[in-house]
Amino acid sequence: MTLGDAVHLEIEDDGAATITLDQPDRRNALSAEISAGLSEALDEIEDSDSDVRCVVLKGAGGSFSAGGDIERMIEGIENDVPADDRVRRLERSTNELLARLVTFPIPTVALVDGPAVGAGANLALACDVQLASEEAVFGFVFRQVGLSVDAGTSYLLPRVVGENVAKELVLTGDLVGADRAEKLGLVNHVYDNDELDERVDEFVDKIVSGPPVALRHANRLVGEGLGKSLEQALTDEAVAQGIVFETEDHEEGVTAFLEDRDPEYEGE
């Protein structure tokens, strides 16, 4: 499925969906077309009857995403667009998109096979899991264009790498290759280029084959955990478990365990 010319959506029968950012000539920067297409893809997945269980987000043409749209920045400077107008436009596009991706109910996986910089790096961090090739490069390079951070950097980055390293990355604007990105926790796994597709498919299959209702609750609870007290976390876990106890997948999981076989979860 093509969402305009900039974003493509493919939904497989097994419950895996792939969103591809496809403006390689602009290194998949978060243009208005990319942002709108990505939002539309998320809408389609949530409204889909195909029981999507995992979403993979990737970029075409050797880049994940170059982040902020430089052409739009130039337009704002040349046309003397008021700062307030530019802030509101940022809030309507990038900020809303990032916030939605962070809280998206279906597990998301960023496949970073090339540069992910600025807001593009945050687009990857907004997903639940980050997988990378040897070509992956991360950079929080806002200073290179004379800007402070945006697109959720101050929220997402310290949660992943800690405050000190987060400050280093934004103050220096240094680019981080795949190996260091893995050591810092910016990515979960780095795969060799020649086996990237196979390893990513294996990883996604593990999520797709799991109990969808239970995994969605588990994913949400872990994402919310740092903002809660222990008491609140325990209460929320108990509430979610009460919901999952009523699912057919829970019964199937217990039965399969007792019968020493792999469970077949239907999402019910």
Automatic annotation (TrEMBL):
One of its GO terms (molecular function) is catalytic activity. PANTHER family: EG:BACN32G11.4 PROTEIN, ENOYL-COA HYDRATASE. Belongs to the enoyl-CoA hydratase/isomerase family. This is Enoyl-CoA hydratase/isomerase family protein. It comes from Natrinema zhouii.
